[in-house]
Specification:
The complex is a heterodimer of chains A (about 250) and B (about 240). By secondary structure, chain A is mostly helical. Helix content of chain A is about 75%, strand content about 0%. The radius of gyration of chain A is 25 Å and the shape is elongated. The termini of chain B are far apart. Classes of the chains: A mainly alpha (about 250), B mainly alpha (about 240).
Chain lengths: ~250, ~240
Amino acid sequence: MAFPLSVASPLAVSNVAYGLGADAAAGRPLAANDANSLIWWHWVGQHLDDIGTDLARHLELTVIAVAIGLLVSAPLALLARRYRALAGPILSVSGVLYTIPSIALLYLLGPVTGFLSFLTVEVALVTYTLLILVRNIVTGLESVSEDVREAARGMGYTNTAMLWTVEIPLALPSIMAGIRIATVTTIGLATLAALLTQGGLGDLILDGIGRRFPTPIMVGSVLAIALAVAADLLLLGAQRLVSPWARARRPA
Amino acid sequence: MSFFTDGANWHGGNGIPNRIAEHLYLSGTSMLVAVLIAVPLSLWLGHLGRGGLLAINTSNVGRALPSLALLGICAQVLPKGYDSPWPTIAALVALGVPPLVTNTYVGVREVDRDVVEAARGMGLAGRQVLWQVELPLALPLILAGLRTATTNVVATAALAALFGQGGLGRYIVDGQATSDEARMFGGAVLVAALALLLDRLIAAGATRRSPLERSRRGGTVARVEQQAVRAESLTGAATQ
């Protein structure tokens, strides 16, 4: 039983809607590259290597940025806690830096760290993680109740020991939340690294823009969003793991 | 810095004033549409207490959306992607809506329930409670959301230049195409300055609007008021 597919049939309409083009609408087998479709799977298949390289590079940029961000924010956060007077300036400076549009910062750093260089990209990405991480680390440490600290002091813990064995573990949920937000933000910002010829998923997007070719734009965009969502979920799971008491407190 | 001293950069279609105007047009239109879409809806949702999960998670989703990707998708999927500013504006609206939705919703929910009950007890109808009580008290958070949204939109509007649009991003993109470092740097300075300026403006507007903030801040008005109270309590009837 084969009904001929006319252009008006629902299957034909949905085929066109999914960008499969006139061939599918008429029920003919798909030609490899239909000019109307958004994603030429044929092209995707041929360029899996490039896509993989860009994806790996994107991850590399993100992981380095968040790792360095943590290394820089942790001491800053501890300083802000130890010397109250520093807390205001540290938070407001990172706040101002955070407000600067990322594309602007990438080029503002040019005279200092080089236009179109890897260092510039990483410095910019790290800068944007600073506010999030410093704020979350400070909030996390401050959320440790004074009773707990007094008990620890009473048990003979020195300040340093208390920091590492009591305060940081209790602050971990907030710190993990900060890492999660910083990572997701950085994944989004790292798409701009391609503007500075440093690779990453933005490369696919820019390639597509240059050639008015939708496929790499769609592939790059979808992968970037998927990567951000995946990282968010993964780190959310990690965040839940380090806060077992929050789980216990949740109403059944 | 030679970018700013070159007279040619201050005149004409590619001049700084025109580019700033274009940038403001793109950002302004998008913010207007975003506010019209996001704020009334979230005010109402917050007032009713419905749709909380959705409202709070839109900002998580919005944060995960890379702006370049969003612009790219809009330019390709929507008609006349590279020839008209509307696909760009659509993407900018999509970026501006999440912070506004979340902040407005949370702002209304955070209003002290006692105050709302008192208002209802005084006989105010639902809509009056929203407009006369919840909205003014939620304003600081709403304006904070406006700040975030504006920064996002102004920043991404700079990327619009990649899609054939105007605006301050044109200096950055064209500068890179011609390896003109002064132009790239100049464009970056302008974009950063515009974003910071708008951020400061909204922040200043926010602190001035909330009467609660005003009295708590201890500024001149608050000090004068405190002084008047003190004077009155000391001299009693004499000040009258």
